[in-house]
């Protein structure tokens, strides 16, 4: 018998019929003798609807009141699911974040969980009840309702699993696991049996949308075994663990992530003095613009070019800031490009294998794809390329690293 936290996302509880299906599933699980805590999101579309309602009243809703509104979405689904369970003869009880007491800081709309009181839940489990908890919400030390940021129910699930020392946190969603890359881009993409927290974190921050980044961080920190599964299809899903040894059989690269959300800015003919990088990037971060990749060229004639990427939404802001800087420091010009994409290969296997980056560059060269920028970390290599080659690049890399379904490495 195990203690399992099961989290169901918005599409999994998107209709009454689906809520009934979830109840059936939970009932079956419980019949196997497990203790179960269920965390649910709001019905799909509901949180967006609530945001839109608030915006009809105020362009910039007061965060405290917005949280009061947003938290209602999950309050509806916990009540409905608990009722559906009770209708099936399964003892169940629902709790809001406040009722459990999921204590958070006071950062409305992006609060962090500080502490979870497990007493009430433990008492219910001992009494044989399924406990249904509202995702995405908590309460601060002053009793104000808080929410955890969009997608925050994943974090609630993981945090509850950590607090209860659950045997597993299962995230049920509309895909059957974590894939080597987006199956819409590469038809041969395949589900991973296992992936490490570190790899999952890279994949999530590089654009894979299966799990909320903060939830993965939390799971890694507290070593909560996490499994991504399809809500309504049978299958083992993907296990996310700390265990590198057991994944050693895998290819060097676990996955390929990509995103189209970045834009590139270059300031040219910068006088190359000490402090130049700070002079350029200081005002950018001063304007609250996050910078991703950075490249400074080797200088000649005492001037250099300096290139960095930002989120595409911040492109115009960054360009303005940079133009002011260019005038100030006497740089030649500012140029930019929004039609870029970032492609990254991710894998802990890189630590023990040389030549991974060059294999990546070779695969791109074979397709005549020009690499504009490169950055590396211990378990990742990222390149910036022209956006129109994105899909070609991802496909070529997927094949080059033998990730395609049916390729020799993964039989
Ligand atoms: N309902 C919230 C959202 O849509 C939280 C979640 O689904 O995880 O972001
Ligand atoms: Mg979600």
Automatic annotation (TrEMBL):
Keyword Calcium: no
EC number in record: 2.7.2.4
Aminoacyl-tRNA synthetase keyword on record: no
Residue span, ACT domain: 265-348
Alphabetically ordered keywords of this record: Amino-acid biosynthesis, ATP-binding, Kinase, Lysine biosynthesis, Nucleotide-binding, Transferase
Pathway stated in the Swiss-Prot or TrEMBL entry: Amino-acid biosynthesis; L-threonine biosynthesis; L-threonine from L-aspartate: step 1/5; Amino-acid biosynthesis; L-lysine biosynthesis via DAP pathway; (S)-tetrahydrodipicolinate from L-aspartate: step 1/4; Amino-acid biosynthesis; L-methionine biosynthesis via de novo pathway; L-homoserine from L-aspartate: step 1/3
Catalyzed reactions per annotation: L-aspartate + ATP = 4-phospho-L-aspartate + ADP
Highest taxon of the lineage: Bacteria
InterPro entries to which the protein is assigned, alphabetical: AceGlu_kinase-like_sf (IPR036393), ACT-like_dom_sf (IPR045865), ACT_Aspartokinase (IPR054352), ACT_dom (IPR002912), AKii-LysC-BS (IPR041740), Asp/Glu/Uridylate_kinase (IPR001048), Asp_kin_monofn (IPR005260), Asp_kinase (IPR001341)
Similarity comment: family membership: Belongs to the aspartokinase family.
Name of the protein in its database record: Aspartokinase
Organism whose genome encodes this protein: Pseudomonas typographi
């Amino acid at each position: 018998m195990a203690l399992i936290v099961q989290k169901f996302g918005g599409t999994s509880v998107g209709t009454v019929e689906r809520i009934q299906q979830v109840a059936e599933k939970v009932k079956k699980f419980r019949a196997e003798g497990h203790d179960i805590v269920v965390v649910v999101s709001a019905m799909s579309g509901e949180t967006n609807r609530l945001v839109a309602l608030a915006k009809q009243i105020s362009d910039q809703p007061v965060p405290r009141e917005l949280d009061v509104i947003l938290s209602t979405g999950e309050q509806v689904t916990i009540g409905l699911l608990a009722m559906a369970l009770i209708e099936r003869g399964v003892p169940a009880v629902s709790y809001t974040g406040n009722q459990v007491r999921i204590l958070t800081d006071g950062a409305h709309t992006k609060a962090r969980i500080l502490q979870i009181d497990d007493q009430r839940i433990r008492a219910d489990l001992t009494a044989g009840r399924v406990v249904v908890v509202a995702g995405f919400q908590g309460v601060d030390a002053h009793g104000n309702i808080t929410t955890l940021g969009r997608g925050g129910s994943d974090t609630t699930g993981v945090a509850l699993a950590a607090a209860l020392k659950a045997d597993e946190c299962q995230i049920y969603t509309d895909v059957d696991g974590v894939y080597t890359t987006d199956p819409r881009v590469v038809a041969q993409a395949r589900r991973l049996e296992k992936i490490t927290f570190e790899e999952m974190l890279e994949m999530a921050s590089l654009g894979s949308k299966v799990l909320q980044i903060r939830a993965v961080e939390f799971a890694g920190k507290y070593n909560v075994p996490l499994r991504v599964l399809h809500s309504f299809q049978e299958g083992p899903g993907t296990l996310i663990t700390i265990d590198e040894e057991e994944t050693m059989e895998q290819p060097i690269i676990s996955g390929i992530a990509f995103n189209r959300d970045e834009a590139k800015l270059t300031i040219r003919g910068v006088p190359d003095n000490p402090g130049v990088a700070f002079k350029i990037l200081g005002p950018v971060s001063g304007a609250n613009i996050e910078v991703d990749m950075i490249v400074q060229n080797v200088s000649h004639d005492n001037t250099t070019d300096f290139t960095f990427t930002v989120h595409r939404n911040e492109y115009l802001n960054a360009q303005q800031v940079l133009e002011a800087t260019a005038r100030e420091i006497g740089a030649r010009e500012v140029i930019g490009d929004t039609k870029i994409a970032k492609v990254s290969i991710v894998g802990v296997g890189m630590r023990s294998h040389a030549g991974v980056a060059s294999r990546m560059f070779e695969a791109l060269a074979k397709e005549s794809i020009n690499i504009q920028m490169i950055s590396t970390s211990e378990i990742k290599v990222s390149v910036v390329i022209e956006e129109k080659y994105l899909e070609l690049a991802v496909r070529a890399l997927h094949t080059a690293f033998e990730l395609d379904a049916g390729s020799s490495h993964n039989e």
